[in-house]
Specification:
single chain, mainly beta, eight-stranded antiparallel sheet, 6 helices, 11% helix
């Protein structure tokens, strides 16, 4: 169980403040100075924006820097209504469902219809920047209606739009990502300096993989000094088991969730040293009596592969973010870490004891995992394969090996954790954003890229600087009081902190930072703090460790 209980350690309250300083004088969040002294402010908005930074030492080697940049009231930012554009008669695909972006002809057709119904409609092209692996350029055209002082007024216009037979959403133009926007932005930064750090840097999924817990609950259960949310995870029961990592998950050196082919993982060590970002693949097998079967997954619902990336996955064996691929013929291994019971359904399940001996074959599949043991589930065409290999009383060896991008074996130590992430943001000190490689570019659905990559959202980032300091960042968003970051802006912010390598973690409503038992940021879900799959914890020093 990756849930550590410890006594609360002493917390230091050393406070330094840099308030309303001119850009060139704003303080660095790093003890001992910034690796790039010419970049002391967030690269957001015009250069003349005010910025304040407050730095607190939470425990030896751990600082929290809270940054507020920009103006609380930018008159150029307004509320508007963004209409959903159907595939019109002039569209390349007239039967396509309504989306935020379409071709110019479809957008013009809808705008003309809306004007005829008495709405002040306008058509705007959306252009997105080039990245390391994506050409960028025009994503498509959107249709917007009106310009309003308040969300209430925009919502009233949206109601009128729906009454006229159309659909749309009230949006704030500050979320569009224009460089001229004056904010504000709220960014929090945790820095772990291995030269002074004597605590533990940990990843926790809580009591089991299957269930979700809030970052604050995971932090409290481990008596952590601070915490942030970590990797992507299954949210919808139709996509698998809610809480299950949607990508690589290594906890205490044990591979408990397989990688999404080639996507990055954030590699952490308990002592806070040698943090790195590595692209990962894997190989797994089920072996008995000299024959071997390929393993498809670890601790997930067979047939449902969140973010895709597995051999034989439908519709693709490549990464495809926020999509659940399917595969009717799978072998999936389970450990007791998964939860109280393995997934039920058609197929067969081999139950293994602590010595890898088959003690039972159950069909339909689903049930408890023996203490210290494991199970292997088979579905579809793999049922006959497993039934032919697994015999009660015989050994069935399950193996899973992590591989790096060059195919070299990785053997994590018991003091190593790896959480899934993507896209990359910074590599070797240069901005290196990889949405196409990591499955975030959908040529047939530019509206998804528009909402997830191009527009501003709450974000959680992680990385390491040239001095070996691990840096964890959250940025609030989806609010007028904090605009959030686009993926491109996230990379620029990461580089401005001097990060040598950086990666995007789960964001949106998942973005949460906790320090000294309190949630510091403002999670964007209407219901409050979102339960997540796992979290990164900074634990105090404990005697004897």
């Amino acid at each position: 169980m990756k849930q550590r209980l410890c006594a609360t350690g002493a917390v230091l309250g050393v406070l330094t403040t840099a308030a309303a300083l001119p850009p060139a004088a704003a303080a660095s969040p790093y003890p001992g100075g910034h690796p790039s002294p010419t970049r002391h402010v967030l690269p957001l908005g015009p250069a003349d924006l005010p910025e304040t930074r407050t730095t607190t030492t939470l425990q030896p080697g751990v600082t929290l820097t809270r940054i507020v940049r920009g103006n609380a009231d930018d008159p150029a930012l307004r509320w508007t209504v963004e209409a959903s554009i159907p595939g019109g008669e002039t569209s390349p695909d007239p039967d396509a469902p309504p989306t935020a972006l379409k071709d110019r002809a479809s957008a013009d057709e809808l705008a003309a219809e809306l004007r005829g119904d008495g709405f002040e409609a306008r058509v705007e092209e959306v252009r997105t920047p080039r990245t390391a692996d994506y050409a960028g350029g025009s994503l498509g055209w959107r249709v917007r209606i009106g310009s309003f002082d308040s969300q209430t007024a925009a919502t009233a216009e949206r109601t009128r739009l729906r009454a006229a037979g159309h659909t749309g959403t009230a949006v704030y133009t500050g979320w569009d990502g224009e460089r001229t926007d004056r904010g504000p932005w709220h960014v929090d930064v945790l820095t772990i300096d291995p030269r002074r750090f004597r605590g533990t840097l940990d990843a926790s999924y809580g009591p089991d993989l299957e269930q979700r817990e809030t970052t604050s609950a995971l932090s409290a259960s481990a008596a952590a000094t601070a915490a942030v949310n970590a990797g992507f995870f299954v949210l919808d029961p139709k996509a698998g088991a809610p809480g299950d990592p949607a990508g690589v998950g290594v906890y205490d050196g044990r591979l408990l969730s397989e990688p999404v082919a080639g996507r990055p993982g954030l590699v952490l060590h308990e002592d806070g040293r040698r943090t790195e970002i590595t692209r990962l693949t894997w190989q797994g097998s089920v072996t008995t009596r000299g024959s071997s079967l390929p393993l498809d997954g670890i601790n997930r619902v067979p047939g449902l592969i969140r973010n895709c990336g597995g051999e034989g996955d439908i519709p693709t064996s490549l990464p495809l973010h926020d999509v659940t691929c399917t595969d009717p013929d799978e072998l999936v291994a389970f450990t007791p870490d998964y939860g109280g019971r393995t997934p039920g359904g058609e197929g067969v399940e081999a139950v293994l004891d602590a010595h890898d001996r088959v003690v039972r074959l159950r069909s339909p599949r689903g049930g408890t995992v023996p203490e210290g043991g494991s199970t292997v589930q088979a579905t579809g065409a793999r049922v006959a394969d497993l039934a032919a290999q697994a015999h009660v009383g015989e050994r069935l060896r399950v193996s899973a090996t992590l591989l790096d991008a060059r195919g070299r074996r990785i053997t994590p130590s018991p003091r190593t954790d790896i959480v899934n992430a993507g896209p990359e943001l910074v590599r070797d000190g240069r901005i290196h954003v990889t949405p196409a490689t990591d499955g975030m570019v959908r040529p047939d659905d530019p509206s998804w890229y528009y909402g997830w990559v191009h527009k501003r959202n709450p974000r959680t980032l992680a990385g390491v600087d040239a001095a070996g300091r691990t840096v964890l960042v959250t940025a609030d968003g989806r609010a007028t009081g904090s605009l959030g970051l686009s993926i491109g802006e996230s990379a620029e912010v990461a580089r401005s902190f001097g990060l040598r390598d950086a990666v995007n973690l789960d964001g949106g409503g998942s973005t949460t930072m906790v320090a000294e038992g309190a949630v510091l940021n403002s999670p964007s879900d209407i219901t409050g703090e979102r339960p997540v799959g796992d979290a990164l914890l900074i634990l105090p020093h404990r005697d004897g460790t």
